Amino acid sequence: MNLSLSRPPTFEPGHSPLSGPASGQVLLLDGSQLALTSRGEWPAWSPELPGSVFLGYDQGQGLYAARATGGPADPSDLTWHSLRALAQSDDPRAGLGGYAAQVLDFYETHRFCGRCGSELERLSHEIACRCGSCGLSVYPRVAPAVMVLVTRAGGQEVLLARGPRHKPGVYSALAGFTEPSESLEDCCRREVLEEVGVQINHLRYVLSQPWPFPHSLMIAFHAEYVGGDIVPQPGEIEEARWFSAGQLPSLPPSFSCSYQLIRAVLGGP
Questions:
Q1: Residue 134 CB-half CA count within 13 A
Q2: Who is most buried in 38, 137, 157, 200, counting CB within 10 A?
């Protein structure tokens, strides 16, 4: 999985999210576009870059994250790359870029307390904020979402669907966000039943993938068909069908959790 980190950047004594080293590199973001120099490196960080957040160290280099509202490097030396494209090309920089994007999103969307409305204070020892008025602590959001590949006939048929946001002709595994107090397994059963009217069982975890668009975590399962006829959920599913494992339709990109799930369950390229 490309959109992942083997570990987040690490902090060293004396440095924190509010106090990093005097020099380093910056993961400069414009939306989901990530800046690299013409040599394919992170741009040099400048203390004059507004809104910078120190992320920690990676391979001995101090790393900051910032929005492209002012530049620490010559703009003519920068090239812009989509996080999705970096992941699709198996570029390991996509993982750190996704981490930086989610940290920036957290601070930008948690400026005020959701309980009392007071301004939040950034904590010095971790990526988090606390309200000085009521004591509420908040941390970066991670929204868990399940993905389910349903098979039948001894694994020779797979249930795939397409929604309004899919490209024409592209089918994917079923997916949905978990509800409060819901287990991942219960979420799988509920989402599949709601979206296509099918009952499943024998759930098996396959893989997970962080998805920083903006802050999801995909958790993928393989399940076996128990019963029910396909009835697409209006507004969510345009079409759902059983496909032979040897004659699959067009699938999502190879870096996606859906593609990796299908490949892991069915095997082969």
A1: 12
A2: 200
